[in-house]
Design a protein that fits this description.
The complex is a heterodimer of chains A (388) and B (231). Chain A is 51% helix and 17% strand. Chain A has 388 residues and is of the alpha+beta class. Chain A has two domains: 166 residues, no CATH class; 204 residues, no CATH class. Chain B has one domain: 3-Layer(aba) Sandwich (Rossmann fold), CATH 3.40.50. In chain B, α4 crosses α5 and α5 runs parallel beside α6. In chain B, the strands form two sheets. In chain B, strands 6-7-8-3-9-10 form a six-stranded mixed beta sheet, with helices on both faces. A four-stranded antiparallel beta sheet of chain B has the order 2-1-4-5, covered by helices on one side. Chain B is globular, with a radius of gyration of 17 Å. In chain B, a hairpin with a 2-residue loop joins β9 and β10. The C terminus of chain B is likely disordered. Chain B is 32% helix and 29% strand. The chains are: A alpha+beta (388), B alpha/beta (231). Chains A and B meet through α1, α11, α12 and α15 of A and α2 of B.
Chain lengths: 388, 231
């Protein structure tokens, strides 16, 4: 601690240069904080599916290929299966493509029976949903985001499904109630949900009639999940629509991976940023030490040993990187709500920022190593020769 | 004769510059008694600064024995030499060599960072040293805000603050006007006379040498003669 005033004063010896270096490292760590949080969210997604008792059956070859609705009856007959429901991917947005809505056509009875005790829907609103063919239940966060209210008629644009009636991709729904989740950890994952009737969807679409995207099953005994999955898939083996049944969480992970290895892409970008930063900061540190050779020689003259001089230069590098990292990571933490707005349903964790501190230390040691070694090896006599 | 604070026996110093070998000091022997103020004079390249570097423990000899303040310096490694310098010798340079970003007081405190003194003790000792050299009122000023004479006083305070037995001064008045130079020399003389500091000073200035109790002349790496007390 007693060396801190010396290190601090040395760091600010050339204020402008230090500020610009600091800013470049701050920007790098801001980028790190934002991208790492997103990469972490995709690597450890909040699947929005609770319990180990849920299975998902999709087409064996691709989740983009559909399955016949009639399979539901056969699946229901499999011993151990308590409930079956079916869903299709609607791919909807509101007004602009950035306004993603997690719209799902559902079979009301089987869906809410399967997800018993998971959702909060008022009894009157549920009744209104059942009675309204074009009715929709909307998550309250989504209602707030778009300023919707119960009674509103809202258009959603599907990226896939054209309407039989007019060939349009626009579907209209009447908001009849709000839907919430009992488990607060699921709040983020469900924040963009809009549920509407499968009958409306199936009758209204111009193609794919009688087909579903996937089946969701609830099993009586989660310990039997693997055996039940095998039994379901065996039912459709060698048929034109073979199935692949897996735990719901695995399905969600596979679904997210459709978008590619986002974590790898983001971390590759970060790698390039920090690699460039190594040269920038390393060069600045080297230049700073070069300018201070006579001063470092004086410190050695006064009795500062080689190791102490090495530590002083490394500490300066560490101080610079740590200050910048803390500012950058704090800014990225402050930016989390903005990122969340652009990534509906993705749960961002501030814990993803913690490795940033370790990276700051590593960066400081790498960029400080060469100048610190140079300072350590400095010959007092040679360094002072031009400065006496 | 009193005990020698500096004792050199057959000291040689050879520098290798590329493929060339340059003999700077050749078989030099010298005793400086404790409490003496010695001026070292001679033409450029005569080996004065090299001799001063060896006495101050900044460099090591190619051959021979160097004993300063009871310690054989030629036997010490770089780490031990650094610790020895911190405890036994204070340096004063021609261009002061103060840290430009630190105040006068912080500059003087630098050698005390190597001790176990508390922050308040370091500050108090630094202020005492600045008071001794008559510049306590400029303690908060940075080197760029001081005149040459004032900066050299701060440098002397820094050399003194750890209470070394020996002051090694390389052209301490070389960058000063006559008045400031005389002030600095009077200060060094006072430190030698009233505080018992041994002083070894390299100078080109005969007037500066008059402040020393003995003047040594060097040429081509060897001592020519020993002068007598002039002041």
């Amino acid at each position: 601690m007693k060396y801190l005033p010396l290190i601090w004063a040395t760091l600010w010896r050339k204020k402008t240069r230090t500020i610009f270096t600091l800013l470049s490292v701050v920007v790098a760590f801001l980028l790190f904080g934002m991208l790492e949080t997103v990469a972490d969210a995709f690597a450890h997604p909040d699947t929005g599916v609770t319990g180990a008792d849920k299975l998902i059956s999709t087409n064996k070859y691709s989740i983009t290929l559909s399955l016949p609705f009639s399979d539901a009856q056969q699946i229901r007959s499999v011993p151990g299966v308590a409930e079956v429901t079916w869903i299709s991917w609607f791919g909807g947005y509101y007004q602009e493509s950035k306004n993603f809505v997690f719209a799902l056509p559902i079979d009301t009875d089987s869906y809410f029976n399967l997800h018993k005790d998971e959702f909060i829907v008022g009894a009157e609103q549920m009744q209104a949903f059942r009675n309204t063919r074009t009715g929709a239940l909307v998550n309250s966060a989504l209602m707030k985001k778009f300023g919707w209210k119960i009674g509103d008629k809202i258009p959603l644009h599907s990226t896939i499904w054209t309407r039989k009636e007019d060939g349009s991709l626009d579907w209209t729904f009447d908001i009849v109630g709000t839907i919430g989740v009992k488990d607060p950890t699921q709040a983020s994952a469900q924040s963009s949900t809009l549920l509407f009737h499968y009958e409306l969807f199936d009758e209204g679409r111009s193609f794919g009639k009688g087909e579903v995207g996937w089946f969701e099953e609830r099993v009586d005994d989660p310990a039997q999940s693997a055996a039940i999955s095998g039994r379901i898939d065996a039912l459709f083996a060698n048929s034109p629509n073979e199935t692949k049944t897996q735990p719901a969480n695995d399905f969600t992970m596979a679904f997210i991976k459709q978008f590619g290895d986002i974590g790898f892409v983001l971390r590759a970008i970060l790698g390039a940023v920090f690699f460039a930063l190594l040269f920038l900061t390393g060069n600045t540190m080297m230049q700073s030490v070069r300018e201070r050779i006579p001063e470092l020689a004086v410190l050695k003259t006064l009795g500062f040993g080689d190791g102490k001089v090495l530590m002083l230069v490394l500490a300066e590098s560490l101080l610079l990187c740590m200050i910048a990292a803390v500012i950058g990571l704090a800014l990225s933490y402050a930016a989390l709500p903005i990122i969340k707005m652009g990534l509906q349903g993705v749960k961002l964790s501030p814990a993803a920022l913690i490795p940033g501190i370790g990276i700051a230390v590593l960066l400081a040691l790498v960029v400080g190593a060469a100048p610190a070694m140079r300072a350590m090896r400095l010959s007092i006599v040679d360094a002072l020769a031009d400065k006496r | 004769m009193s005990e020698a604070i500096v004792s050199l026996r057959n000291v040689e110093k050879r520098y290798i510059r590329g493929k060339q070998s340059v003999d700077v000091l050749q078989g030099l022997s010298l005793d400086i008694p404790k409490g003496e103020f010695v001026a070292l004079m001679g033409p450029s390249g005569s080996g004065k600064t090299t001799l001063l570097n060896l006495i101050g423990g900044l460099d090591t000899p190619t051959a021979g024995e160097i004993t300063v303040a009871g310690q054989r310096l030629d036997k010490l490694g770089s780490g031990a030499l650094a610790r020895w310098r911190a405890n036994h010798v204070g340096f004063v340079f021609q261009f002061y060599n103060l840290m430009p970003m630190l105040s006068a007081q912080r500059n003087v405190e630098l050698p005390l960072l190597l001790t176990r003194l508390s922050a308040s003790q370091r500050k108090s000792n630094a202020m005492a040293a600045l008071t001794l050299v008559g510049i306590a009122d400029r303690a908060k000023h940075k080197p760029s805000e001081l005149s040459g004479g004032q900066a050299q006083r701060v440098a002397i305070a820094r050399a003194l603050v750890a209470d070394p037995t020996l002051l090694v001064c390389d052209e301490p008045t070389g960058d000063l006007d006559r008045k400031s130079a005389d002030d600095v020399l009077h200060l060094l003389q006072m430190l030698n006379r009233d505080h018992g500091k041994s002083v070894v000073m390299v100078t080109h200035d005969p007037k500066a040498a008059e402040f020393a109790s003995r003047v040594l002349h060097m040429d081509k790496g060897a001592l020519l003669e020993a002068g007598t007390a002039l002041a």
